[in-house]
Structure formats: structure tokens, C-alpha cells
Amino acid sequence: MCRVYIFEVKPKRAERQRARELRAEGRSLKEIAASVGASLGSVSLWVRDVPLTAEQQRALAARDPTVSAVARARGQHIRSAQARAKRLAAQEDGRVIARSAPPEFAAACVLFWAEGSRCRNVVHMTNSDPALMAFFLRVVRGYFEISHDMVAASCNLFVDHVERQREIERFWLAVLCLPESCLRKSIVNVYSKHSKKLRKNKLPYGTCRLSIYSTYITQALYGAIQEIGGFEREEWLTL
């Protein structure tokens, strides 16, 4: 005698399969839950691995703005975590360089520590000493690949520099071995009524602000400074 076994599809399994089919069609979680008679939590678990096309995602966001808001928040969190991981990796590279580099690299890092501005993704260095500025850029160039489109230079001048402005700008470009394309608009300060122009000729070439636009180089220098100084500075990751 042959026995015949009849297996019934469990209701939950049938609901799950239907939910996945509806999701593949681009239906929202609320629509699927109402259609199959299940909770939102269950539907979310059942369809979480069902891929949606870009067009389906846009259609869902248009019908339900909360979907777009949640997706943006989730995406921002992921991007922030990835960017932080890259900054940490750059700092570790800087630490590695600092452990084996010659004294000139340590000197350049200390100069940046003392004279540079704090920014998460740009190296800002300002000074009136041409030799100092040339030394700093030369050393940094020796350890990192820096193209001219990553660099900007601007001058901070006083009124008595105005007649020599172009001369001074060309002077700094020559000192830093930079082309004219790296020059940014100069700032000309006026004397206050209390100064009596006593600052005249104190800084014959004013000051120069050098900017290197690179998150990697900025964070690598921060890592090297921390390695040299023997301290940790968490806020340099999140400036």
C-alpha cells in the first residue's frame, strides 16, 4: 500500500513569499503589510535583502517622504563612518613616517603644529619668514604627492605694500616654486588711527598663507605630530 503525504504550506511561509514578490515589484513596506496581513516588523525582515532598482527607490521616496529621510540619515551615518576611518588611516600613515623620517620631517611637523591653522581637510600655514615657508613646503612635498591644483597662496599686506603688491606676490610664488595659477587675492590691511604707522617696513613682504587642499595630507601630518609629541588629540579627527 502506498501512503500519500500531503504537506500544507504554512501560512507564514506563504505570506513571506508574497511579501517578497510585492517588494520586488517596488511596493512599500506599509503596502505589503496591508496586503499580506502581517506586521511591519515581520515584513521588514522578510524583504530586507530584496534589491530595488534606482527607479523603484525614487518612486518609493516620492510616495513616502519618510523613506527618503531614513535612507538619507542611514547613508549619512555610513559615509561619516567611512570618512572617519580614512582619516584615522591617514593619521596612522603619518605616525609610520614620523618613526623613521629624518629630523627635517619632524621639524616641518612641529612648524605646522606651532604656526598652522587647525582644519580637518586643509593644511593652512601662515608666516612672514620666506625661508620657513619654503622649507615647510619643500619637506611636505618630499613625503606626499602634491600637484599645483592642490595648492593656493595668498598675501596679507599693509597699506605701505600696495605699490609693491605685484612684486610681493611674485616674490612669494618664486619662494614657494608655485605658478601664477596658485595665487589667490591678497588682503590689504589699513592702519588703525592709534598705530601712527609704526608698523611701516616691519614686514617687507607681509605674510603669506599657504593652503594644501588634501584631507589625507592634513591628517597624516596630524598623526605625525601626535607620534612626535607623544599625545593623542581626538578633536583633530572631527574639526
**Low-confidence segments, ≥5 residues, pLDDT <50?**
4-9
Q: Return the string of H and E elements.
A: HHHHHHEEHEHEEH
Work out the helicity level.
Answer: 40-55%
Beta strand %? 5-15%
Cα separation of the termini: 80 Å
> What is the tally of helical segments?
9
Spatial order of strands in the largest sheet: 1-2-5-3-4
Instruction: Report the major sheet.
Output: 5 strands, mixed
Give the C-alpha Rg: 30 Å
Instruction: Please tell me the total number of domains.
Output: 2
Structural class: alpha+beta
Q: What would the principal axes of the Cα set say about the shape?
A: elongated
Mean pLDDT: 88
Number of strands: 5
What does this structure look like?
The protein is elongated, with a radius of gyration of 30 Å. Helix 2 packs across helix 3 and helix 4 crosses helix 5. With 239 residues, it is an alpha+beta fold. Helix 8 links the parallel strand 3 and strand 4. A 5-stranded mixed sheet has the order 1-2-5-3-4. It has 2 domains: 53 residues; 154 residues, no CATH class. It has 9 helices and 5 strands, in the order H-H-H-H-H-H-E-E-H-E-H-E-E-H.
Task: List strands and helices in order, with pairings.
Blueprint: H1 11-24, H2 29-36, H3 40-47, H4 54-63, H5 65-100, H6 103-115, E1 116-117, E2 122-127, H7 130-143, E3 151-158, H8 165-176, E4 187-189, E5 207-213, H9 215-229
Parallel strand pairs: 3-4
Antiparallel strand pairs: 1-2, 2-5, 3-5
